[in-house]
Amino acid sequence: MTSQRISIFPLPGAVLYPGLQLPLHIFEPRYRAMVSDALARDRRIGMIQPQRPQEGAPLFDIGCLGRIGEVEALEDGRFNIILEGEVRFRVVRELDVTTPFRQVDADLIEEPRGQVLAAVERAGFEREARRFADAQGYAVDWDSVTRLDDASLINGVSQIVPFDPASKQALLEARDLSARCELLVQLLQFFGHSDGDDDAVGTTLQ
Do 13 and 100 have their domain in common? Predict the structure, then answer.
């Protein structure tokens, strides 16, 4: 497997999945430089979580490579971008670089093709998702949810759920869609029994 150099955006709680999008507001000078560099090359950066929120903390092993799609360059140098997930990657090593942003050597992870859930898995997930949404006070368009394909549903929920960074990382690292669905159901059950944050009330999931 051929490794490649990836400029990374280490952000706790923010994960990206292949085929999904992540809106980002880029304001720190080092990450503005990273976006400018990516736009001048292949438009690609990697999203990955640090193991701790401290500056320069070690990284988790797995992240997701994304391509910068929409870009809004603001007059003061900030960017609003939409990052489009392409493929997960596994960090081989962090590189010693002179750029203000961090870079890694990473292997791209080949995803299993044509992943679908068994009907009982899909039904079990939707049932638990409804319980969680009701408990947290979320408003959900369930008609739209039922029309999503399995990968878009499971990966999409895994990307936006308000879990702690370690739980979100475990979902990202799941070996396949079925394993991710099983873990997601367990986490929905666990966090659904916890007291919801006041800030979560009234949130709409789409």
Answer: yes
pLDDT in tens, 99-126: 999 999 999 999 888 899 999 999 999 9
Spatial distance between the Cα atoms of 35 and 68, rounded to a whole number of angstroms: 8
Contacts of 17 (CB under 8 A, 6+ apart): 64, 85, 88, 155, 156, 158, 159, 172
How far is the first Cα of the chain from the last one, in angstroms, to the nearest whole number? Answer: 37
Distance CA 10, CA 46 (A): 8
Does any domain span residue 114? Answer: no
Closest by Cα among 151, 149, 138 to 206: 138
User: Domain limits at 29?
Assistant: 3-108
CB 44 within 8 A of CB 68: yes
Q: Judge whether 86 and 18 are in contact, CB under 8 Å.
A: yes
In this structure, are 84 and 174 located in the same domain?
no
